[in-house]
Amino acid sequence: MALLIEGDCINCDMCEPECPNQAIALGEEIYEIDPDLCTECIGHYDEPTCVKVCPIDCIIEDPERPETAESLLEKYQFLYNK
């Protein structure tokens, strides 16, 4: 699944610089993850870095965007032409 930042985000600026796909940006009120760019760090790291650094654990799997590890890897390969 792509990841989703919940509404209790405190805009601490920890997640955005950690995203290797530049999928995280400040939205109107909180940070948001572009699901078309999010690979849950597959292709880069063993686990999503945004989840790892979030101090309040407000980043979850997006229930509206179910994706398998294989589809996330395909997205990574498409994004990086590999």
TrEMBL record:
Its cofactor is [4Fe-4S] cluster. This is YfhL family 4Fe-4S dicluster ferredoxin. Residues 1-29, 31-64 form the 4Fe-4S ferredoxin-type domain. It holds the Pfam family Fer4_7. GO terms for molecular function: 4 iron, 4 sulfur cluster binding; metal ion binding. SUPFAM superfamilies: 4Fe-4S ferredoxins. Keywords: 4Fe-4S, Electron transport, Iron, Iron-sulfur, Metal-binding, Transport.
